[in-house]
Amino acid sequence: MNTPPLAVARDTAPEAHLNCKDLRGADEADRMREALVRPKRIAGRLGIPGI
After folding, report:
1. Which terminus of the chain has a smaller tally of CB atoms within 10 A, N or C?
2. % residues pLDDT > 70 (the chain)
């Protein structure tokens, strides 16, 4: 069985982990990306340095 690298599996798997019944939506990658970018964008607007 060929297992994809963790990063690939994490971004493409429909479930959070193998036994999870809470399936991810098709927009999960976009939601994760926004969750990582938003704090930096807000910090920039508020003038908070170092973030």
Report:
1. N
2. 69
